[in-house]
Design a protein that fits this description.
The complex is a heterodimer of chains A (about 775) and B (about 325). Chain A is built from 32 helices and seven strands. With about 775 residues, chain A is mainly alpha-helical. Chain A has a five-stranded mixed beta sheet. Chain B is an all-alpha fold. Helix content of chain B is about 70%, strand content about 0%. Chain B is built from twelve helices and no strands. The longest helix of chain B has about 35 residues, at about 5-35. Chain B is flat and about 80 Å long. The chains are: A mainly alpha (about 775), B mainly alpha (about 325). Chains A and B meet through helix 12, helix 13, helix 14, helix 16 and helix 18 of A and helix 1, helix 2, helix 3, helix 4 and helix 11 of B.
Amino acid sequence: MAAATVAALTLALVSAGCRTPTAIPTASLLEPLARPVPHPPDESDAAAAHLAEAALAGDTPAMERALGQLYAAEAERSRLEREEAEARNRRRGPRVRPKVLGLHNPPEGRPIVPHALNLVNSSLENPIAYRRASARLLLRADLDAGLRERLQRAVNDDPLRLARKRTWDTRQIYFAHVFNSVSAPLGRSLVTGVAMAPYQLSMAVVHFAAGLWERTGMTVQERQALVHRKRFLAAHPHAPEVPDIARKVETSEAKLRKLRRKRTLERAHVALDAHQPELASVLAEHALLSSPGNEEAKRVLEEADAQIARRDELRARSLAAAEDGPRDLALAPEETRALVESLLVDSRELVRETRALRRAAPGPELRDESDFVLALAQYESGYESRSWENIADLAERSPRRSNMARYAAALDESSWQNPYGSYVERKRRGRSRSALVEIFGRWANGPRYRKLPRPLAYLLDLPAVAQTVITTPVRFLLTGLRDRPDFQGPAAVAGYRYLALHPDGQHSRELIEWLFEYEKSQKNWPAALRLADFQPGFDPESRRELVEETAKLGLQAADRIDRPDLRNTVLRDVVRQYPDSDAGYMAGILAREEVKLASPQRIRMTRQFLRENPQIAGTGGLGLRPALLDGELYNGELHPTGVTFLGGRVVEFNLVDESGDEENAPVKVRHEVSSERLARCAAMLEETTLRNARIDPDDELAPDPERDLYFERARLGLTEDLDRRPSAQSTYVFEGMRERYGMVRGRDSILPFDLVVTGSFLDLSIGAYPRWRQPRETPDAFLYR
Amino acid sequence: MVPHQAVRARLATAVLVAVTLSAGCTTAKRKKQEAIYGPTESVIEVIAVLRRHISDDTYRFPPPTDFTGRNVYRASLLRLENMEHLHAGHLRAGHLDASVAFAKGRALERLRGYDLAAQHYRSAATREGVLQEPARQAAVFCDDLHRATALGPDLVDPLSAEAALPLDAEAAVAGWDERERRLTDLLDRAGKKVPVHYGFIVKEEIERTDVARARYFAALRHALPGGQVRAIAEAQRVIMRHAASKEYNRHVIDLADLYADLAEEYVEANPPHSLRFDPPSFHELVESASRLYQTVASRDGSPEKLEAARRFEAFLAFTLQVDSDRFSQ
């Protein structure tokens, strides 16, 4: 027992003794920079220089001469290398790798001849010739990866090649459409029962046909191909391919014109249906410009013009006075005068004068006018609801018998004049819409095929609609888990309008409470808090929660802002407005930290990035002590957050603290480095990242003009004048590939299709089938829609 | 009758009924529309509607419209004028000419026709009665308003041949300051000697003065020293001073447009590929314009929302021409 205790104690002591404490380096974190060894230029150098001069001067014979010299010098160099290697092999044995000889050798085994050939090719004036020469150059085996990628891009940037590619994409899209239309129903029926296969397949065929009908006539890729071909014609008007390409362009342009005309007319029809004849007329005229004899466009134009004429006639009529004179003057002139004067001078005698008018003209002729004036008097006396009820009654009267019904209807329907009525109506519509969406799902917005005749479109969607309706209870159960659209937004707008118009109105309390609940449901905490403050006796605990949520929202907003000045303003605002909240306290700390650690730049390289790109950390770049990246804590180690450029010549090194725990905040050490070191580091960093991006598409360097500007100035040694503008600050982070993608990067499958397994509680479907992948759209596809 | 003849006859009857019903529906709809847009039948009809909107705060809220979609003040004025033309005798016989003149004054002052409104009020004040004193006060107020609004350069009508901005900025500012001083005096009178709605009219005029100033400095920003900063400051001043205005969104869009114009001019003067292009300066202009457009684009229920959203989209499309290494969103 005692022996065991002693053993355990010894083990613990040994273990503690073995745990090496992390060292914080006290000496310089940087090593002296490597000085390039100067060497006398050899024949290759001289030939390369002659070649560059000749290329810049556009002297083809001189270029050929220089290229010949370079070939000879390189051949000689290769011969010497070979002989040296053989001699070495003889001395040391065959397994030793031949050392590169060099009076002057291209760095890292990059042969100079392919670069020289590319230089000669780039002096070709005809881009077609350059692309062909580059394609030939690509056949060489001695190209370095960077040059290979650059040449490949040049070869690919051929308008005709791009046009062919886009045309191929179009065919692939059509094929994928057909393939997926068949495979999906078949896959579903195989899993859920073969008996359904004929039905599923026939539905698939019908939907495929409907999809074809709905098709826009020209895909984005076809339009891209057209532009590429036009670019080719503009750049090479004398190329032999021109007649063939011109024919294709003509065909595609005719197709595009037809498509545009069709779309314009569709929009014109929609405008006509929406009682917007001016818009319909403009669109029809536009269609007629491209196709002067188009009968449909003419019909739309005629219809639009007729609607405009009719409306103008009606509007002009509405301003005219009745031919038989004002009937109030005919029936009760004195009472009319008294009432009119009361109306004009903001009199309190409106009711009395109206009653007098009724007594003088008891018939139905002036009933409308008196009802309207009484509703008006009620409104002005604060009987808001009763007044609007009377206005609504008046609005419902037949316009053939009531001359005031039209004014009452306009008042009743105006969301500015009658915001409460509008709120009630919009709320009702929002609820109905919500119920419709719950029951019919996506079908609440209408059938899938908008260009088919409505009944047919609904008929095609009927099975899917029925399925959706049946599964309504399931969706109700999942309501809490789904994001639901905001159906009550319009009602809220009307509610706020009411409060703006009548802050102390009859419905203010009700609306404040409703809006409070609405804003809470939308997680719009600042608005909810504002509304809570209008509610007397609001629970203080709930208010505290609202304050906390609002402050948190402010903190999140600040986090999304890149510019330090704006971020700090938001943080200070949060502190000032919500000083008692936790988030407000945190905002205060952050604001103070920001000021304390403010620097013109915050460009960072992570430790992983430096490990993956040792040339940047090495003496050819920043010159970081290798011990800081070797993974050993005893000699000091860089924190995963790495190194930060703070602007000017100041660099901040983040080191792992004494505990050795990388999760802890780093120990920050600032150094002012020499201009030369900064310039070399910037140059190496830029060279390396650009090369990486060229070789590996996943290692793309995100654009950041402020970062580039800082490095540009660093390379030129112009960092002494600090650019303190907040908008000049970059917070770019250079991260390693492992940090970005993890241990294994996802790769696209080599198969042209994905295997899909689907199952849905909502429509009770289950299936497994291959789905043909559609070609990816190019980044500029949005310019062709 | 043989069976197929009977079927044919039934079919023909059905078609006839359907056609008749459809034609009947169309006619009924047409008649209803005609009734809605029927002519004015009484004086009370026009004046009651006008009265309903006299006290509307047109500074904070959009001006009211009637069933035709026209501005109520303009529609009322036109209806009264038509009634006068057709039935002047009736109106005179009913001693309503003063009332009609007064009502036209009320409509005209909402249409910025202050001098004409004053004329009509003076005409109404010639007749004794309850309207006489209010008409006199309104005439004086409208005259003062007319004189005040004539001070300083106004917004320029781009189609006017004589339109020219004075180049003396100091004189122009002095004119606007005087205009504003007088308008502020008039604002104090609203609700005391004259009805409250004059306060809304005066506020609209003050806003118009501020907008005229901002437009003036925006138009002359290349000609005046420090013109760009002054133009932005003036546009910001309008926004700050008229946060409650119905035109607030419009003012924000105006400032965003100014920033967008500056960004475009900056790119023209310093092409992005040139050495003179300074990314942070361009970034600041773009950020300011974008932020302002987005502010308006997020405001539900206003037509400016659509305008701001589309302008923002168009502005972003413009930034596409700047190389990504010189500018990135």
